[in-house]
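re: that chain from earlier
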Amino acid sequence: MFNLKPQSKLTSLKSALASSIMLTAQLTMAAQNMATQGMASADISFSTNQTYPESAAWSAKENTFFVGSVHRGIIGKVNQQGSYSPFITDKQLVGTVGVKVDAKRNILWVANSDSGASDRSSETTQGKLAALVAYNAATGEQIAYHDLGKLSEGAHFANDIALDDKGNVYVTDSFSPIIYRVDANGKASIFATSDLFKGEGFNLNGIVYHSKGYLLVGKYNSGELFKIDMLKIQRISRKLL
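^ sequence. v structure.
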């Protein structure tokens, strides 16, 4: 995880994006992710101009963090010394939100969306774009592009990503009450939808897969947590925190 720490007080995201301040981000390494290299948990600080990362993912194989950018629509790399460098500058990317590493296949999955805060925002994509993009984590080469928004009408915002042990990828949509799935063969579909996911503003956000066969999904605006049975998709239950 990381915490964005602006060097000056920001009154709004739009005014922040219009300024030229630098952001310093803290990446907190989970000890379990670093155990394979015999390292203790630590914090890594890095600075980069107007990147505004929403998510980061660690790759043990590439020995680097991959960092998204809501504003610039790129993927950067941060090494253990805190050095940031641009990695993926795909023109199809507008705002890079969730990022996830598939360690088995060495694939970097990226959620591509447009909140209106990107320097690549447009009327065509703002509040409408929801895509999942796969890249070679070693080279940055695009492997596949999945347009998830075309699967249903309405507003869309692909947010967070989860990966199960069979290679299926799950993506939350913050503007539609939907969880998408892209299976290991590359077929995209709507995995789950529910009125429980509806609400004002940003709704579904974080998502994780549990090895016992369920997904846990957070709803940003209400603070609710949902459990979704993978075998009985319509069995969606609220979990108390």
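Residues 135 and 142 are 4 Å apart (CA to CA).
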